[in-house]
Amino acid sequence: MATVLEDPSLERHFKGHRDTVCSLDFNPNMKQLASVSMDSCLMVWNFKPQMRAYRFVGHKDAVMDVKFSPSGHLVASASRDKTVRLWIPTVKGESTVFKAHTATVRSVDFTYDGQTLITASDDKTIKLWTCHRQKFLYSLNQHSNWVRSAKFSPDGRLIVSGSDDKTVKIWDRNSKECIHTFYEHGGFVNQVEFHPSGTCIASAGTDSTVKVWDIRMNKLLQHYTAHSAAVNSLSFHASGNYLISGSDDSTLKVFDLLEGRLFYTLHGHQGPCTAVAFSKSGEYFASGGSDEQVLVWKTNFDQLDFSEVLQSHKNRQEEPTPSEPTVSDIPPRVTRKPTKPKSPRGYDARTELKNMDDESVPVTDVGPAMFSSEQNGVTFEMDMMGSEPEPTIRTTKDRPATTQQLEPQSLPPQLGKTLEQIVGQLDVLTQTVSLLEQRLTMTENKLRECLDNQQRLTLQVRPSD
Asked: Could you tell me where the DSSP H helices lie in 374-463?
């Protein structure tokens, strides 16, 4: 199979955010790109030239993560305002609000079928929810510091999480237990991702490293130290052959996982690169930075026909498992012609970026304003405390969708204070429920130990026949 290698090229750049870009995700239909920022906004960019972009207004603080549902019909965003919003990416700006955690929500992800949502937070917990019924399912509580990232495996059976406690944990969804913990990071873990095959995970940390583990053997496969500052974000190519990362050293780096080496170093941002993401097909990737810009790149360097490659992910379980993991063990096992080691290639797009025409895309502000008497669309607010309360739905009469900028709304002082008190009491209740969950788990474990010990004693003292 011939491989044609070409340098990646800068295709588009979007300007519209007013602060650092925190996260990016491509719509599976490849017609849109979503980005979120410290400016409290979610932007949806359309790839069709001069097509209007949309700024979704609703979060009350920085938005830390964004994810399209597998169908592309929903967008989830996680915020420092302690909520998660599910948006319908249309001009109506309809959204469902999950009052999910008692601290900043750092991460959000969907299962492959779009039925379940996972969130990770500075309250040290990971929480799972059903999307359509808007029901809280359960919490995972074994991290001892902020949880910055949590992702589902491709088949939805496992969860990987990374935390400021410097660990990466693998969880089983059925048993709700942590089945393994990796301790190799020397700093905070900023992001974790599953390999498309589901057999490996990658993590990015403040120790300037990118690590890849085989989760069947629980072995460290690869350890990259190419960055000179904290690594903020990473993403796997659809084939599983490449991994891209973005760092505070202002560079993007592409790693060739089959050969275990740095492949490309890309320069495009003025300042830290804070977010990277491959498209679902791998044909494009996007990056965002503290310079408030969103850059879209064409991959180019991997022109293989991936039909067989992607099929190999589905057939992976039929292959015999090796006794020890190796670098070449990362599926798919694509045969390559022997090549001499090559030095990493570089590409500086900053000069090209200056020469490109500004993407002066018209931007429309959409989204219901909280507590406003008139709303553009519908907002569902839910306080998920482990029970299943009915959502309170605030709606307006049917009317044509508008695209006017939202006017600032003000609250009466007494109502504002009352709402703040209610929110504070709900936060206390959420913390109490979380503590009760932990104590109940400890009690169950102790009871199980007592029953096991009692059974052993009974067997020991039972007279032999």
From this structure: 413-461
Cβ count within 10 A of residue 118 = 25
- The whole-angstrom separation of Cα 271 and Cα 276 is 14
Task: Write the single-letter amino acid at 18.
Answer: R
pTM listed for this prediction: 0.72
pLDDT in tens, 128-176: 999 888 889 999 999 999 999 999 999 999 999 999 999 999 999 999 9
Among 150, 220, 227, smallest CA distance to 191 is for: 150
80-99 b/e with 16+ CB inside 10 Å = b?
A: bbbbbbbbbbebbbbbbbbb
More confident: 304 or 126: 126
Alpha-carbon distance 286 to 6, whole Å? 17
Angle at 251 between CA 246 and CA 253, to 5 degrees: 65
Across 105-241, the runs of DSSP E, i.e. the strands, are: 105-110, 116-121, 126-130, 135-140, 147-152, 158-163, 168-172, 177-182, 189-194, 200-205, 210-214, 219-224, 231-236
Q: Is 186 exposed, middle or buried (0-12, 13-18, 19+ CB in 10 A)?
A: exposed
Selection from 141-145, 410-414, 458-462 with the highest mean pLDDT: 141-145
What's the residue count for the chain? 465
pLDDT of residue 311: 56
What percentage of residues in the chain have a pLDDT greater than 70? 75
